[in-house]
């Protein structure tokens, strides 16, 4: 998503790394960037084979319309201990609110500081 690419420095300031994951092939990711959104500076991971295995583990594979087998639009924040600290599924036609993601990251940072 281009909005995340534009805010990479803000994510880094919150000690966060943006990674995109989709059940599409690497070739699909390349074509999407070349023809639709432009080159992104954060990693895009292909969850293509075995098909959507990562999405299945997070419970975000769509089983119904508009297309079974694609992943839902979801944001997952995993902390440094590998624990899911935030997860939310959004409608496919909705771009997740970046401020909501930043708020979740700030909350995670406060928890980390309090634990020290």
Structure characterization notes:
The protein is an alpha+beta fold and about 120 residues long. The protein has one domain (about 1-115): Glutaredoxin, CATH 3.40.30. The chain contains five helices and four strands. Strands 1-2 form a two-stranded parallel ribbon. The termini are far apart.
- How many domains, as an integer? 1
- The N- and C-terminal alpha carbons lie at a distance of 34 Å
Query: How many helix segments?
Result: 5
Give the tally of β-strands. Answer: 4
- The proportion of strand residues reads 15-25%
Compact description:
With 116 residues, this protein is of the alpha+beta class.
Set down the secondary structure blueprint.
Blueprint: H1 2-6, H2 8-13, E1 20-22, H3 26-37, E2 44-46, H4 53-57, E3 73-78, E4 84-90, H5 98-115
